[in-house]
Write a structure and sequence with these properties.
It is globular and about 60 Å long. The strands form four sheets. Strands 1-4-11-12 form a four-stranded mixed β-sheet. Strands 3-2-10-9 form a four-stranded antiparallel β-sheet, with helices on one face. About 40% of the residues lie in helices and about 20% in strands. It has one domain (about 15-310). With about 325 residues, it is of the alpha+beta class.
């Protein structure tokens, strides 16, 4: 039987990628102004900066798996160390919208752009599976990654990579008021967006706002979160499997840091984004150092022996 060859994947040109980036920044300035401010603070520290350094803290066992498979796992928020972090964000948003006047003002602002989009997006909230990276107990390490600023990798993976906002309840409510004002001021532009895309934007705004809102007392963490909502926005590049983690069977989604998976994520290949690895407090620093150097060499990382660092932080008794 004759078969047709698969169509080649069209990789956007650098100019097309930049235009997509600029459009995304415009949308964020309207609907996620606080996140955009934090993003620019990270990625625009110096002129011409193209990457930001992020540290993924995890167990030594999980880090070896990430290096060997070029995949890291996203788990359900119910399996987080403290799932109440997400409940905290939900409660703050919920108290805002329980005010009938505020709720109406919000819906009216979005409906003036495209009738019904706000309620259509909100109706999806009860049917979400939200995911983020997570580490367990034992020896901890930090994998330092250089994540590109202007890239289509995030969209290709249907991932939302967002900074956490450390805000009081009045501060968070103030950001929602700012979004309403932005939507009113940019009504003509928002009317040009396709309805399905606009609903998706509102939905992602709620998801990011809830998942990435923490108590202001944790500000020193400067955390970012990777969010995947497969029931609403999925990618064929993201694979899933059922795994047992700390005795709990659960579905995990695997983020490829592997350019061979698709040319659309070439700039997220592990060899491209890996910067260094830091070994945390442990009674066995040098055996762990040697194991990671060997794993990185096998993964094709150059100068691996110079890119594994032992923190030297003493273990608490």
């Amino acid at each position: 039987m004759d078969t047709q060859p698969a169509s080649p994947i069209k990789v956007p040109t650098p100019e097309e990628v930049r235009k997509i980036h600029e459009e995304s920044m415009r949308i964020m300035s309207i609907m996620m102004p606080y996140a955009l401010k934090q993003m620019r603070a990270m990625y625009e520290r110096t002129p011409g900066q193209t990457h930001g350094r992020f540290v993924h803290y995890t167990t030594a066992e999980a880090a070896l798996s990430i290096i060997r498979t070029k995949r890291f796992w996203l788990r359900n928020t119910n399996c987080m160390a403290d799932y109440r972090e997400v409940q905290h964000g939900f409660d703050i948003f919920n108290r805002y919208f329980l005010d009938a006047t505020k709720h109406k003002v919000f819906v009216d602002a979005f409906d003036a752009c495209n009738p019904g989009v706000a309620n259509e997006a909100v109706d999806q909230n009860g049917r979400l599976s939200m995911w983020r990276a997570f580490g367990g107990t034992g020896t901890r390490v930090g994998i330092v990654l250089r994540i590109p600023y202007i890239s289509i990798s995030g969209a290709s993976l249907a991932l939302n990579f967002s900074p956490v906002a450390y805000l009081s309840e009045p501060g968070a409510h103030g950001i929602i008021d700012e979004v309403i004002a932005n939507v009113r001021a940019n009504r003509d532009y928002l009317r040009t967006l396709k309805r399905e895309f606009f609903v998706q934007l509102v939905f992602q705004m709620f998801v990011s706002g809830i998942v990435c809102l923490k108590h202001e007392g944790f500000y020193e963490e400067r955390e970012w979160r990777a969010i995947y909502t497969p029931s609403r926005w999925s990618s064929p590049l993201m694979t899933s499997s059922t795994e047992v983690v700390a005795g709990v069977p659960q579905i995990v989604y695997k983020v490829p840091l592997d350019g061979t998976a698709s040319p659309l994520i070439a700039d997220l290949d592990f060899g491209e984004v890996f910067d260094r690895l830091i070994v945390g407090p442990t009674p066995y620093p040098w055996p762990i150092y040697g194991a990671f150097v060997e794993a990185l060499r096998s993964a094709g990382v150059a100068n691996a022996d110079e890119r594994v660092l032992v923190s030297g932080i003493p273990i608490r008794a």
